[in-house]
Amino acid sequence: MNVYYEQDADLKYLQEKNIAVLGYGSQGHAHALNLKESGLNVCVGLRPDSSSCAKAREAGLEVNPIANAVKWADIIMILLPDQYQKSIYETEIAPNLEAGNTLAFAHGFNIHYNQIVPSETVNVMMIAPKSPGHLVRRTFTQGNGVPCLIAVYQDYTGDTKQQALAWAKGLGGTKAGVIETTFKDETETDLFGEQAVLCGGSAELIKAGFETLVEGGYPAELAYFECMHELKLIVDLYYEGGLSRMNYSVSDTAEYGGMTRGPRVITSAVKAEMKKILEEVQDGRFAKEFIDECNSGYPNLKKLRASNTDHPIEKVGSKLREMMSWLLKK
Ligand code: NDP
Ligand code: MG
Ligand code: MG
Predict the structure, then answer these.
(1) 226 CA to middle of ligand 3, Å?
(2) What is the pLDDT of residues 47-72, one digit of tens each?
(3) pTM, whole model, 2 decimals?
(4) Strands 102-105 and 75-78: what pairing?
(5) Residue from 160, 150, 149, 177 nearest 122 by CA
(6) Residue 83 CA to ligand 1 centre (angstroms)
(7) Does the structure show a pLDDT above 80 at 216?
(8) Which residues bind Mg(2+) 2 (predicted)?
(9) CB of 107 closer than 6 angstroms to any ligand 1 atom
(10) What is the interface pTM, i.e. ipTM, of the complex?
(11) 113 ligand 1 Cβ < 6 A
């Protein structure tokens, strides 16, 4: 596994170039501002009626309609929601690309699943910060960076990897470390991780624990603290020092009880199901299902969102969080 740092990347590969960042959301604002403050020539591309226009202009960035930004740019980073990238690519981006331009992504979904099929005469690269955009921005303003993945899918001009490294450096990423990967590996591990562990797995684990306590006759408030609130404290320990730090920090009672009972919750049946989920990611079944869902106006997603909102843990949670003065009201 190749890991790159400051001395491995040279901003000169981007310095003579015009750079368009399409989108000014979580990732977009961080890429546009960090690269601009790294001395690069950046403009933001947005739809004309975009609610993000004013924010980008207030931050001192030049904003143009997407088609114009692409026409002007040599390097185009697409930081729009994944499900809209294909249609925006076909209508606003592709007609304005020139041979030798570089298309950049922060996630491989659209390239890996052939939603976007760029001409052979453009470079295609990825710079994927392993963090939410707001942390990409905050660490940069503090003089640091977050780890990033880079990948090259098409190398027409012969220097695409240097451009990707330069982008990662402009973001602050080479201060932390940049790992080289492929569009395939980034896309498949990202989707599997969010489905099985980070978003899907953790949410179902929390709900199952909460429901078990409430059905056992315990107050919902206590169940909330045990099964949702305290999870953050545990995850912080994993984040700082892995499984051993967590086990070191909790009581011996918790350590013994956890190690003997945990495998009864996450059984071999759970892992067998994870393997099926991974296969659906690998053979494109998940991607097709999600694209169909988007194209039909999110009928399932709307239902599932509503059932989550109605879950008792959400009701008790919103009351309890009002007691926590340090939480930002969102
Ligand atoms: P956001 O949802 O935060 O970005 C929204 C931006 O796209 C806004 O500027 C919005 O402007 C614009 N936009 C939304 N819909 C449209 C549309 N139909 N036409 C034109 N512009 C539109 O996206 P993220 O930053 O979360 O994701 C961007 C990319 O980064 C994705 O590929 C994602 O997978 C990847 N990524 C995201 C991470 C994250 O932290 N969120 C982490 C790593 C990778 P408007 O005001 O016009 O709606
Ligand atoms: Mg993801
Ligand atoms: Mg306890």
Answers:
(1) 7
(2) 988 999 999 999 999 999 999 999 99
(3) 0.93
(4) parallel
(5) 160
(6) 9
(7) yes
(8) 190, 226, 230
(9) yes
(10) 0.97
(11) no
User: Over the stretch 245-284, which tens digit does the pLDDT of each residue have?
Assistant: 999 999 999 999 999 999 999 999 999 999 999 999 999 9
Give, in degrees to the nearest 5, the angle at Cα 59 between 53 and 64.
35
- Kindly list the domain boundaries of the chain, sorted by start residue: 3-181, 190-321
Report the distance separating Cα 70 and Cα 132, nearest Å: 25
Q: Would you mind telling me the total number of residues written for the chain in this entry?
A: 330
* Residue in the structure block whose two tokens are 């009672």: 253
The DSSP code for 328 is: P
Judged by DSSP in three states, 69 sits in helix
Superfamily of domain 3-181: NAD(P)-binding Rossmann-like Domain (3.40.50.720)
Residue 190 annotated as binding site: yes
**Going along the chain, which residue ranges are E strands?**
3-4, 18-22, 41-46, 62-65, 75-78, 102-105, 123-129, 148-154, 178-180
Burial class (CB in 10 A: 0-12, 13-18, 19+), 186: buried
Q: How many CB atoms lie within 10 A of CB 102?
A: 29
d(CA 320, CA 310): 16
What is the DSSP pairing of strand 178-180 with strand 3-4? antiparallel
- Report yes or no: 210 and 313 within 8 Å, Cβ to Cβ: yes
Q: Minimal CA–CA distance to 247: which of 239, 229, 259?
A: 259
Contact 183, 153 (CB under 8 A): yes
